[in-house]
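User: Please predict the structure of the protein below. I'd like the answer in structure-token form so I can feed it into my own downstream comparison script.

Assistant: Understood. Taking the following sequence of 311 residues as input:
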Amino acid sequence: MSKSPPATLLLADHCTAERELAQAILEQAGYRVVIADDGQQAVELFAALRPQLVIVDLNTPHLSGVEACRQIKGSTPEFIPVLLVSSKNRTQDRIDGLRSGADDYLGKPYDSDELLARVEVLLRIQKSFQRASRPVRSRRSLAQGGNIEGPHMAVTPETFRGRVEELFARAHRESDPLACLRVAIDPSEVDEQTRDNQLQTLRTVIRSSVRGADRFNPDGEQGYVMVLPDTHFPGALTVAERIIRQLHRHLRANGEALFTVSIGVSFYPNRDTKNVDDLLGLVDAALDRARAEGGGRICLYQHQGYLYAPD
């Protein structure tokens, strides 16, 4: 069996010493590293080389890391992970970086183990997206014994709970991240038909926002519960924000009455998440917090509740 070629990473960092350190760490781990001196060059090299992952400093000259991220993300329909790095490492700094569309945020100075771990996770997520985009011959081939459960097919709560337990057990066994989201329509005085229409619209938006490996299922009459394998804190925030923004765009484009949703997010591994009950209990608490703040918000529970209001 032929060995896969090393992943190509694009690294844009205006600090020569830190850039050389990161390059040495990544090349020693077997990656091919292409260097950019600033954000503008990073965008140009991305267009020419199509690397598997981009690492860009927040404060690169000529074009900021935030703007470089936006241009790179907007230039391709493929999922290309972007890791934003900066010496600014407060919680709000990280959230602002993720709001730009970055898939992860890493504080500097570089720690070799953390840098490699984040790169490995982002590349694994990218491979999951690639596998999800490949056509399959039939739905029956997705599962054994003729069970055609898939990411876009509703199943009983018991069956879905079993699937969550399987994903949690695998995450625990393989030391992989796992995220759980509850997406709920914010309370409003509407009739039953309107609420059914809202749920159908929300389902359409969620369906367009998930990978083939992800799972979601109806969550009572309020919304949906989602489980995202191989997804850590910033990746889950990206998905949650995408759902809210795509919902708003969908409603405006189709002339539908506006409504809002709140999203709670919980994670594994987490010191407070030891089993599936913890994962589901914390996602409930996160959703309640998001709604208590007025709705239309995302609450991510990771050691404490991070509340975030998308633009």
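That's the full token string. The two ends are 48 Å apart (CA to CA).
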